[in-house]
Structures are given as structure tokens and as C-alpha cells.
Amino acid sequence: MSVIKLETFLEKKREAKFLEIHEIRAFFEALSRRRNPNYYDLAIIVLLFSGLRIGEAAFTKEDFDAESVFRTEYGSPITSHSFREVLARVETDLIKNCEERYGFKWTKHVTPHSFRHMHITYLQSEGMKVAIKEIIERVGHANYETTMLYTHSQGISENQTVKAFDKFIDRNNFRFEALKSWSSKYSKY
């Protein structure tokens, strides 16, 4: 496999783990229909809102001087393996029913680590204004580059991008004169 094909494959695999807002809503609605609500709580409260890795979220009595917080319906602690099994069942349900229920085809592959990607990306989204240094410290990364690998494009439309730049221009008092016609050896005109 060529380096370019490998990079494209890895990028597609990484992007398949990230959910846009409409996909998050569909996923969590499907997850909430599972018999055991602990999987929903673990996914949304702990993994999505905290950015913890699944191994860091496997709380035990040593962590709290109490019993495990998240348990299967049979009473044993939820493990990474059991959580992945539930995610796979939810994904199977969405592949089969997402288009009918929510109006779009399910093409994603959610893993426990997906929630960490979403946590980091959404902390950097417009309106959140969380400093990158704070995000790096929060998630325990050693450097900026690692954190940026977790950042995904959020499908912001071109209009939203233009509006964001317009706000930036207004806030910083940039002024432009009327555009005058010009040409160079590279222009079409």
C-alpha cells in the first residue's frame, strides 16, 4: 500500500469515529434504549463530558471506597470489552434503522475512544472558547500536536465560516477599501 493510500485510509478511519451533533443525538437516543442505563451514563457523562479514556473510567472501589459505579445488568463492573459490545449492538441497530428514524444513513464506527475525540473537538468549537493549553492539561496530553490529532472538522458551512471572519474583522476594526481591479501574470484577467 502506498504512503498516500495509507494516509487516506488512516484519515478515513479516524474521521469515522467522530460524530457530528446530529449523529450524537441519534447515537445517544439508540444507546438510551438499551436495557442497562449504565452504558448511556458511562458514555455521555463520563466519556463525552470528561474526555477520559475508557481505561481511566473503569472506576473501582479503590477509587471511591465503594462498589464500582458502572455495572452490567448482572452486577459486574462494566469493562472496556462489555462497553465495546454494547457500542457494536447500537451501531448495528443504527446501520439498520438510522435512515428511517433520523433521515440519514449511518456510516460511522463508534469506539470508546470516539468520545475523547468528540470531547476535545467540541471544546475547541465556536462558542466554547476554551484555551488550547487548558484542553491539553485537561486531557493529559504532553504536547499541542497530540491534541490537534484529536480535532475534527465539524462540517461548518461556508456561510458560517464567512460570518466568523466577518465578526473577527469587526471586533478587530479592520477596514478595507473598495476592491479595485488588478491583474498579474497569474490571474485569469
Description:
By secondary structure, the chain is mostly helical. Helix content is 56%, strand content 0%. It contains nine helices and no strands. It has helices spanning 3-16, 21-32, 37-50, 61-64, 80-102, 114-123, 132-139, 144-149, 158-171. Helix 2 crosses helix 5 (80-102). The protein starts with a helix and ends in an 18-residue tail after the last helix. The model is unreliable at 176-189 (pLDDT under 50).
Strand content: under 5%
Q: What is the mean pLDDT?
A: 75
Number of strand elements: 0
- Alpha-carbon distance between the two ends: 43 Å
**Portion in helices:** 55-70%
Tally of alpha and pi helices:
9
Outline, from the CA principal axes? Answer: globular
What layout of secondary structure does this protein have?
Layout: H1 3-16, H2 21-32, H3 37-50, H4 61-64, H5 80-102, H6 114-123, H7 132-139, H8 144-149, H9 158-171
Helix pairs in contact: 2-5, 3-6
At a glance:
The chain is mainly α and 189 residues long.
